[in-house]
Amino acid sequence: MLTKRIIPCLDIKNGRTVKGVNFINIRDAGDPVELGASYAAQGADELVFLDISATNENRKTFVELVKQIAAHVNIPFTVGGGISSVADVAPLLEAGADKVSINSAAVRNPQLIDELAKAFGSQFVVLAADARKIQNQWIIHTHGGSKPTEKKLFSWTKEGQERGAGEILFTSMDNDGTKQGFAIDPLSKLHELLKIPVIASGGAGNTQHFLEAFVLGKADAALAASLFHFGELSIPDLKNYLNTNQVTVRL
């Protein structure tokens, strides 16, 4: 059985780690390089660094920070925010990133997924799907969750897979930051629909929520932010709990 992954997510704004609730009410959570190194030491499987204001402010993900992260972190990490072309990605790879996450630019230009997969390989391309339930449909949002689109979660992620995305990062905007648990129903539907791994994001509040994401939602990985940033749950404790409950994790 494949090992389930635990992934701390660090949202970056102005060089600092921040965290909000339902994508708003942002507060500071610390230095991203220090936090990333700490999580790696605790046993995190991967890290995700998202420059949450890059698309709205129309600037590129900062390569210098990626270099610093790569120098201090010894586990795979994904970088996202403001990536809109193949040319944006090469410097991130050279700086040490293992994968890139794309969202707004892929919705605007789906061909970007094909281009990145062809240039760098599918394993390097993570399609981030931020979705909110509106009139019984999971609707994709862009620009840090601020703009609803015409795309629907299930058809869009299936298209992303067909175009060459190697992984889906699904964030339920309704659950994000609430600590009430992951959105299990759409997670399990994504598992049934897709052949590529799905990362659950949005809503983690305790160890039980991770267990539900893996057992009921069939997620391949689970991501959390504030739970780890503010010391409410340690990665070793979480992994020991999952292991005790027959979820295969890297201890």
Explain this structure.
The protein is α/β, with parallel strands linked by helices. The chain is built from 10 helices and 12 strands. Strands 1-4-5-6-7-10-11-12 form an 8-stranded parallel beta barrel, surrounded by 6 helices. Helix 3 (86-95) links the parallel strand 5 and strand 6. Helix 1 (32-42) runs parallel beside helix 2. The longest helix has 11 residues, at 32-42. The model has no long low-confidence stretch (mean pLDDT 90).
Keywords:
251 residues, alpha/beta, eight-stranded parallel beta barrel, 10 helices
Short description:
The protein has 251 residues and is α/β, with parallel strands linked by helices. The chain has helices at residues 32-42, 63-72, 86-95, 104-108, 111-120, 153-163, 184-193, 207-215, 226-229, 235-244; strands spanning 5-13, 16-21, 24-30, 47-51, 77-80, 99-102, 125-134, 137-142, 147-152, 167-172, 198-201, 221-224.
